[in-house]
Structure formats: structure tokens, C-alpha cells
UniProtKB/TrEMBL annotation:
<dbReference type="GO" id="GO:0006047">
    <property type="term" value="P:UDP-N-acetylglucosamine metabolic process"/>
</dbReference>
<keyword id="KW-0677">Repeat</keyword>
<comment type="subunit">
    <text>Homodimer.</text>
</comment>
<dbReference type="GO" id="GO:0046349">
    <property type="term" value="P:amino sugar biosynthetic process"/>
</dbReference>
<feature type="domain" description="SIS">
    <location>
        <begin position="46"/>
        <end position="194"/>
    </location>
</feature>
<dbReference type="GO" id="GO:0006002">
    <property type="term" value="P:fructose 6-phosphate metabolic process"/>
</dbReference>
<keyword id="KW-0032">Aminotransferase</keyword>
<dbReference type="GO" id="GO:0005829">
    <property type="term" value="C:cytosol"/>
</dbReference>
<protein>
    <recommendedName>
        <fullName>Glutamine--fructose-6-phosphate aminotransferase [isomerizing]</fullName>
        <ecNumber>2.6.1.16</ecNumber>
    </recommendedName>
</protein>
<feature type="domain" description="SIS">
    <location>
        <begin position="228"/>
        <end position="369"/>
    </location>
</feature>
<feature type="active site" description="For Fru-6P isomerization activity">
    <location>
        <position position="374"/>
    </location>
</feature>
<dbReference type="GO" id="GO:0004360">
    <property type="term" value="F:glutamine-fructose-6-phosphate transaminase (isomerizing) activity"/>
</dbReference>
<comment type="function">
    <text>Catalyzes the first step in hexosamine metabolism, converting fructose-6P into glucosamine-6P using glutamine as a nitrogen source.</text>
</comment>
<dbReference type="GO" id="GO:0005975">
    <property type="term" value="P:carbohydrate metabolic process"/>
</dbReference>
<keyword id="KW-0315">Glutamine amidotransferase</keyword>
<keyword id="KW-0808">Transferase</keyword>
<dbReference type="GO" id="GO:0097367">
    <property type="term" value="F:carbohydrate derivative binding"/>
</dbReference>
Length: 379
């Protein structure tokens, strides 16, 4: 039941701190896993053969799960130093990459029933059958429904801990998928020794703070995003910009808005804007820029400045209130100051809220948007 929330989507957005807590408890609380013999501070229950001689990872997914996979790629490459490709399942199944040895193939699907994702995994299994050992398929599923078709198809699962999601637009299942990727990337980094012990500890410490930070974020942003929604209810186009680990969050912000409010929105890596999309910008097209302090902060600010010079109204998702950032943004949606590496878990929240409030303001059926279904079981 909706427990006082107007829609399931809003209730599920508010359940996200709990989802992160449940994930921390399951993946990172070694005390609760006395059977864990690897000494890794992470326990996702994967047998060692999944990691043995690993050279490459390929991930197949659709929609929001594909966005989670892009964050996963960033983590797997930057923390565990494993070359990682992310493919749309619908593309991969008809034009797979050439076979690479010692490759882990991950299917990410919250429902565990998405036809293209299942077919891509089945194709991978089949084309590697009978090959020499290093070319044999190693399949891993990341799903919120271990009892699903995916669960029956792959030998290993990381179970995401979102609980049942009713709103068609994925919110808490996305956060749960991100948590699974943090756990996987850190576990691999631990076993491959690609990360100094102190850095690993720092990241774990940061992750443990995230539920409180999400709670603070929700509290401070609810009214703010509602106000913005009021102003943007009639807007017809939006651009979302992010770079690095927050580029997939820009894509996700745009997808949420499209899905439930039927407003045209595009997400771009901020540096790519000048290569075409900048021609769209004028006073009628607001730009939401995700600007988290870290490796690409100045770059995002300077890309946002380019948008502002075209008269776009600039909305900043940033913890920086004063200085240059404070001045360039017309509207600020403040998020807590967290390590860039962990920031996607926080920056996605205001984008979910913004999409929600715009759709609600427009009087739309937020939980059951037109033309969409919770699981897409046809090609
Ligand atoms: C987005 C959304 C869809 C799904 C996509 C994949 O809000 O709901 O884009 O993410 O259909 O679904 P799963 O994860 O079930 O494979």
C-alpha cells in the first residue's frame, strides 16, 4: 500500500535509504558472514572461479538497468582495473563483440524477465559452448527477482535488495543495482589488489554514510523540486548534463522525465554538448547540470557556462553554494558533499523527484505511464 504517499513512485523514492542500508548489511557486513573465508570485507557470495584469470567484463542490459551498468563500468574499470564493455542487450544479441577469453558476462535486469537481456545471455552461452575452457561462458545475473527466468538461466546471481517495486519507472531498483556494482567492483578490487587498503576502507566508510545523506537530500529537496516542477510543468524540452561517473545519471534523469512526464529530454556527457546539441539551446530549454567536486568538476562548470551563454536556464545539482558555481546556476538543487565516486547514489535522487513532481503537476498517471509496462517480455 501507498502508506500515505500519493503514488507508489514517491513511496519508492523514499524507500531508498532503506534499500542502501539493506545492501550494506548484506554485502559489506562481514560479521554476518562467518562462513566467508576470503577475508574480503565484501561478501556477494560468488565462487572464486568467477574471478579466476578474469581479463574482461561485458554487461548487457536495457533502459535504467543499462544506466546502472554504465556506472558499474566506471567502478569496475577505475577500481578493479578490468576492461568493461556495456551493451544494449537488443544490439548485442544481433551483433556481438568478437569472442574474448576469460570474460565475465553480466546481465542486469531488475525484473529478470526482459526478453532482450535474456536472449543476449542465451546467445552468449550458445556461441561459447564447446570452446576451449578460457572461452567458455561465465554468466552472472544482477536482479531484484532471483526466482525469475534470469535466475533459472545463469549459475550465479547478485540479488539486489530493493523489495518489490510497483511504479513502472525504476527508482529504488536502480539504487539497489548501483549498490550491487559497488560491491562487485570493490570485491574484485580486493581480490586483484588494485586498490590500496586505506582507499577501500575510505570507500566503505563513505558508503555507510550514504543512507543518512539520502535522507538529508530527500528532506531538503522535496519542496525545492516541487517548486521547480511548478515552473517547468509546461516546458517541452530538457537537457541533462553530467561527466564521468555522473554521465549515466544525466541519462537516467532524462529517461525518468521522458517516461513519466512525456517531456522530451536528453542526457549528454557535458563535453559532448558543443558537438551538436548546443544548437538546441535557448531560453526555452532548461539545462540540468550535475556538478560534483572531483576530477571533472571544473569541466562541467565550464560546459554549463557555455549553455548559459545561449540563454538556457541552468539548474545545478551540486553541493557548492558559493563561488563560481553558486553564481552561474539560476537554480541550485543542493546535494551533500560526498566523494565523487559515491555521488551517483545521491545525484540521481533530485532527478527522480523532479521527474516525479513534474508528472504529478501535469496530472499524469505517474505509476502507470502510457505505453510502458513493468517488464518487457517481448523483443
Ligand atoms: C525505466 C524502466 C525501463 C527498464 C527496462 C529494463 O524506468 O523501467 O527502462 O529499466 O525496461 O527493465 P529490467 O531492469 O527489468 O530488465
Amino acid at each position: 500500500e501507498k502508506q500515505g504517499f500519493k503514488h507508489f513512485m514517491l513511496k519508492e523514492i523514499y524507500e531508498q535509504p532503506g534499500v542502501v542500508r539493506a545492501s550494506l548489511e548484506a554485502y559489506f557486513n562481514t560479521n554476518s558472514h562467518p562462513e566467508n573465508s576470503s577475508n574480503s570485507p565484501i561478501n556477494i557470495g560468488l565462487p572464486t572461479e568467477v574471478y579466476a584469470d578474469l581479463e574482461q567484463i561485458q554487461i548487457v542490459a536495457c533502459g535504467t538497468s543499462w544506466h546502472a551498468a554504465l556506472v558499474g563500468k566506471y567502478l569496475l574499470e577505475q577500481l578493479a582495473q578490468i576492461p568493461t564493455q556495456v551493451q544494449y542487450a537488443s544490439e548485442f544479441r544481433y551483433a556481438p563483440s568478437p569472442l574474448t577469453p576469460n570474460t565475465l558476462t553480466i546481465g542486469v535486469t531488475q525484473s529478470g524477465e526482459t526478453a532482450d537481456t535474456l536472449a543476449a545471455l542465451a546467445m552468449e552461452q550458445e556461441r561459447r559452448q564447446g570452446r576451449e575452457p578460457k572461452y567458455q561462458a561465465r554468466l552472472l545475473g544482477i536482479t531484484n527477482r532471483p526466482e525469475s527466468s534470469l535466475g533459472h538461466m545463469v549459475p550465479h546471481i547478485i540479488n539486489t535488495l530493493a523489495g518489490i517495486e510497483i511504479g513502472v519507472a525504476a527508482t529504488k531498483t536502480f539504487i539497489a543495482q548501483l549498490m550491487a556494482f559497488y560491491a562487485l567492483a570493490l570485491d574484485l578490487a580486493y581480490s586483484r589488489q588494485t586498490l590500496p587498503h586505506e582507499s577501500l576502507e575510505d570507500i566503505l566508510k563513505g558508503l555507510r554514510q550514504i543512507p543518512k545523506e539520502i535522507e538529508a537530500t530527500l528532506e531538503s529537496q522535496e519542496k525545492l523540486t516541487e517548486q521547480l516542477a511548478h515552473e517547468f510543468a509546461e516546458t517541452t524540452d530538457f537537457i541533462f548534463l553530467g561527466r564521468g561517473i555522473n554521465f549515466p545519471i544525466a541519462l537516467e534523469g532524462a529517461l525518468k522525465l521522458k517516461e513519466i512526464s512525456y517531456i522530451h529530454a536528453e542526457g549528454y556527457p557535458a563535453g559532448e554538448m558543443k558537438h551538436g546539441p548546443i544548437a538546441l539551446l535557448d531560453a526555452k530549454v532548461p539545462v540540468v547540470a550535475i556538478a560534483m567536486p572531483g576530477s571533472v568538476y571544473e569541466k562541467v562548470i565550464s560546459n554549463a557556462q557555455e549553455a548559459k551563454a545561449r540563454d538556457s536556464r541552468l539548474i545545478g545539482v551540486t553541493p557548492v553554494k558559493d563561488g563560481e558555481a553558486g553564481e552561474i546556476f539560476n537554480d541550485l538543487i543542493p546535494v551533500s558533499f560526498v566523494d565523487e565516486l559515491l555521488s551517483p547514489i545521491l545525484t540521481v535522487i533530485p532527478l527522480q523527484l523532479l521527474a516525479y513532481h513534474i508528472a504529478a503537476r501535469r496530472g499524469l498517471d505517474v505509476d502507470q505511464p502510457r505505453n510502458l509496462a513493468k517488464s518487457v517480455t517481448v523483443e
